Structures are given as C-alpha cells and as structure tokens.
C-alpha cells in the first residue's frame, strides 16, 4: 500500500496552518524518514515561497517520490516540473474539477474538458514519466463522464489515477463501489495505480479511504493529524494503525515506521499551530489514557482489556492513568508506588477518601496533590 502524504500541500491549505520554509523542510525530512512513499510538497505556481519549498524538498530527497501539484494548464505544469526536477523520483500531480458544478466555473463543455485533460496530461507526461491525475470532485461527477475522463487520462500517460472525495460527501459503501467499478469498467485501468483522497466534512474520511482500499485503491492520500481544507483529510496515523491493527481483515502492508508517528504529530501540531484534540484517535492526549476505576484496574492487570494497540507502537513511552474522580484504589496504589511511597491497606483507605474528596473539586489530580495527601494522612494520622 502506497502512503501519499499531503500535509505540506492540502494540509497547509487549511486556513491558518501556514508553515515557514524551514519548517516545511523539517516536516518533509521527518515524513521521508518515517517511510512515506510519496510526499506532496506543495503547489509550486501558488507563490514564490511554495516554489522554493518544493524545489528544496525535491533537491534534498533520497528515496521518497516528491510530488508537486499543478492545475490543468501548461504554465502550472512547467512551473511544477521546474520545482521537482531535482528529485531522484519526481512526480507531477495535475487535476481539474470534473463534476457539473466544477465544470461550470471555467465554463467548459464535457468535450472541451476532455480535450483539455488529454492535452495537459500528455504535456505533463512529456516532462516527467511519473504523472498523477485527479478528477476533482470525482464523487459528484456523472458516472459515464468520470469513466470517460479517467480513460482519457490513462491514454494520455497518467500512471496514477487519484479519485478525490473533494467535499467529503461520499459514504464508505459508495467509496468502495466507486473504485471497484472504475477498475472493472475503464479500459487500461489495470495498468495504473488507483488512489483515494478523502475529506472529512462528515467525519468519514478514514472510513472512506479504507473502503476505497477494499474496492482496489492501492495508494492512500492522507495528512498528519488529518490536517487539511475545512474539516481536514484522512489522517495518516489512522489509516496506518488501522491497517496494522486489523491486518486480519485488511491484509496490506505500509512502509511506515509507526513508532515515529507521535513525534511527527507533535511537530506538525507545533509548526502549523493546530492543537490536536484530546480525544483524537492514535495521537490525542487521551488516546492511551484511562481515568475510570474499572478501566484502570483492567489495564493494570492486562493492558489489552482496554487497549487495541500498544502505546510503544505509535512512539509513546507508556499509557497513562490520570487520577480523577472516576479513578479507583488500584490506580491510586500504582501511582503511590511510582512516587516511591509504599502504604499499608488502612493508610491507602484513608488516602483514598481524601483523594476522592479532592478529585470531586479538581478536574485532574497531579503527583504533587497526591504527595500532599500522603503527608496530610501521615500528619493527621
Ligand atoms: O480535494 C481535492 O480534490 C484535492 C485535489 C487537488 C486532489 O485536493
Ligand atoms: Zn483535497
């Protein structure tokens, strides 16, 4: 399974997520080091800064394919090629909106757009032997027209066909079916890689990407922390860990070293200024945290009771058992041991009563609070 990361392109298009040149270079290096197959480094014609970032990422790259985005226009394609040509493995990604709503913007008829696709994909292919083509808003494009334009792009030399759910409109059952039917119907489909690019407007981006894989997609486009336009894109960490954890029903390998996920997630959060929500799957602060007594007791006896992944596998040293009003005696005793305090059963009972009283007043009880409770218990006691 090819992992195509677009944190530096679609992710950076997220309002307010702009990164500096050096930050982009750092993230690209981390992505390559983590094993991302294709890095979409930016949109070279968008600005001088974007061009320079894509060019410098391309020039420093080693194994990853470095991709630049270009609209279906010759100046875009030429600028994109200028930026990526220093990479050992460059790719041009060109796109055009094919749904009725998007065709209306340049006011092109179906035939005119089909001609434009043939010309621009052929042009891209003359510049670079690795060309990806996307029919933007594919999931709202008429079925017959979608088949027609995908066939044209393949004939013109596209090597990857990416099917974007640009507005996060599709549902998993449709996502799988769309890719499956395209592969079955379009002549030449077996000579290219089909890719999925999902947005999260209805919270279904990861489910849709995995469904597309079920339908035959072999490239997943995604971003770190799910950064991206509006509600974001499929999150890299989610698809990677879903494939790793549920290999029993989705037998696909990625080249991602999952132990590097947490570090890159934190760096992307810092440089983009986008905090990761506490309950975000895989990388949220609470993803491996257990507060309630029943859960803490279970996890202390056997982590698998409430964890389907190992924290170490995503680069976390350990899970956490934050103490709060739902916590039980087992977690309190465990915390006291970690703090170097061994207490007898009666003392534990006393400290536990004090702890519950405090926890009712405070959201989270910290190590310092626990140590103070122990001192109080000893003094009163
Ligand atoms: O969402 C989208 O359609 C895109 C394309 C440029 C692939 O990001
Ligand atoms: Zn997108």
Shape: elongated
Indicate the mean pLDDT: 97
Strand residues, percent = 5-15%
Query: N- to C-terminal separation?
Result: 62 Å
How can the largest sheet be summarized?
A: 8 strands, parallel, barrel
Q: What spatial order of strands do you see in the largest sheet?
A: 1-2-3-4-5-6-7-8
Uncertain runs are: none
Fraction of residues in helix: 40-55%
User: What structural category characterises the helix and strand content?
Assistant: alpha/beta
Key attributes of the depicted protein:
single chain, alpha/beta, about 10% strand, elongated, binds 3-methyl-2-oxobutanoic acid, binds zinc ion
Fold and architecture overview:
This protein starts with a strand and ends with a helix. Helix 6 runs parallel beside helix 7, helix 12 crosses helix 13 and helix 14 crosses helix 15. It contains 15 helices and eight strands. Helix content is 46%, strand content 12%. An eight-stranded parallel beta barrel has the order 1-2-3-4-5-6-7-8, surrounded by six helices. With 381 residues, it is of the alpha/beta class. Strand 7, helix 9 and strand 8 form a beta-alpha-beta unit. The relative contact order is 0.10. The model has no long low-confidence stretch (mean pLDDT 97). The structure holds 3-methyl-2-oxobutanoic acid and zinc ion. The site of 3-methyl-2-oxobutanoic acid has 8 residues, from strand 5.
Structure summarized in a few sentences:
The chain has 381 residues and is α/β, with parallel strands linked by helices.
Helix and strand topology:
Elements: E1 2-5, H1 7-11, H2 21-34, E2 38-42, H3 48-60, E3 65-71, H4 74-84, E4 90-97, H5 100-103, H6 110-127, E5 131-136, H7 143-156, E6 160-165, H8 172-185, E7 193-198, H9 205-215, E8 219-222, H10 236-245, H11 261-272, H12 293-301, H13 329-338, H14 345-361, H15 367-380
Helix pairs in contact: 2-3, 2-11, 3-4, 4-6, 6-7, 8-9, 12-13, 14-15
The chain binds 3-methyl-2-oxobutanoic acid and zinc ion (ZN).
3-methyl-2-oxobutanoic acid binds at residues 10, 95, 134, 136, 164, 166, 197, 199.
